[in-house]
Amino acid sequence: MSHSKLGPVVSSAHLAAGSFPEVSEFEFGLIIAGHAFGRWTVRAMAAAGCPELSSLDVLVLHTVRHRDRPKKLADICLVLNVEDTHTVNYAIKKLSKLGLVSEGRLGKEKTVEATGEGRAACDRYREIREELLLSAMKDAGIEPDQMSRLSAMLRLMSGQYDQAARAATAY
């Protein structure tokens, strides 16, 4: 059967019945990709020796490690596009208790940076990612320029969703 007879692959046909059904197809892709990415981050970090971390914990650790400079809570939330600072603060506390990050101060602001143990965990994660994920993507024929275009589209769409969320709040 052709795609046109089946329609787009979606999780909610009632939403795809609107004026732009391809957006429902995109949203279904986001749903399954988001969950797959979350599973990947948790399992890859477990393979790297940190089985107690949630997906958000892993993302916070990598963000804190970025460029090996101390980060402020607000900056971590901004980079990860997390509105609820409490969840990120909880992740920082957990990572700190595990010895993966240390907390400090820059003037009046609290900062966080990766410890040697945290940097080593990120390095092991990177090695596992290279071996298990990136090599499989290359073998599947995914081209770097395709990935860059997809990434740009995802950033654009996140802006659309953020703007629509602001409009819905004022609705």
Automatic annotation (TrEMBL):
Record's superkingdom?
Bacteria
- State if DNA-binding is listed as a keyword: yes
This protein's species is: Ruegeria marisflavi
Q: Name one Pfam family in it.
A: HTH_27
**Any idea where the HTH marR-type domain is?**
53-118
User: Do the record's keywords include Calcium?
Assistant: no
What's this protein's name?
Winged helix DNA-binding protein
The UniProt GO MF terms for this protein read: DNA binding
Alphabetically sorted, this entry's keywords are: DNA-binding
- Gene3D superfamilies for this protein: Winged helix-like DNA-binding domain superfamily/Winged helix DNA-binding domain (1.10.10.10)
Coiled-coil annotated spans: none
Q: Which InterPro entries match?
A: HTH_MarR-typ (IPR000835), Trans_reg_MarR_HTH (IPR014601), WH-like_DNA-bd_sf (IPR036388), WH_DNA-bd_sf (IPR036390)
